[in-house]
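Thread title: Can someone regenerate the structure for this chain?

I was given the following input by a collaborator and told the matching C-alpha cells would be attached. They weren't. Posting the sequence so someone can regenerate them.
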Amino acid sequence: MNRLSVPSPEVSSGHETAPRQSSPSHFEGVLLAASELFAGREAHDSRDKTLFRELALNLLPQTDESDRRRIACHLVRHPATPPEVLAALAADEDALTAYPVLRNAASLDEEILVAQAERGPDSLRKAIAERPDAGPKVLAIIAQLGGPDVVALLLDRTDVDLDEEMVSRLCKRPEILKRFGKDLVDRKVLNSSQMLTHFSRLDAPL
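Best answer:
Regenerated them for you:
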C-alpha cells in the first residue's frame, strides 16, 4: 500500500471515545484517501493491514459522515479489510454508513447486529434479516420491531425457526397479525391456543 504521511490523531485515554467532530479539521479527507488507496490494491501484507487498521480506528470518530459512507462502500467488498474496521463501520450510528457493511460483510459480532436491529431504521433491519449469521436473539428483535416488509423477509427464510416465542412476538403486533396471520395459520405455527390468547387482535376471517 502507498504509505501516507499523516498527522497523529489525538485519542482519548482510558475507555473514552474521541467525540465526532462536525466541523472541518486537519484530518479531513485523510481516511477517505487512505481507504481509496487500500481498496485500489488487490493484495496487502500484514504490515499494510496493521497500519491501515490503526489509522482507520483512530480517524473514524473524526471523519465526516459523507466520507464515512464512501469509506464503507470502498472497504466492505475488499477481502483484506481488517475485521475491526468493518465492525466499526457496521456499528456506525449513521444508517447509510452501516448499511453496506450489514448487507455484505461475511461475519459480524452479534452485539453489533442486536444494537443495529434495535436502533433501526427498517433499511438496516432488512439487511440484518437476510444475514445467515443473524441468530435467534437478533431475529426476535426484528420480529418485535421490524415493519411489515421486514417481517416478510423474515418469514420468507426457510432456515428460520418460527418457534412459540417468535410467533408470540409477532402476534402482539396487530398490524403484523392482520397481514401475516393467515400465513402463520397455514404454516401451522399459529395454533388454536395461541389464537385464543391473541383473540382481541385477530381480524374477522381469523
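Residues 1-24 have pLDDT under 50 and may be disordered.
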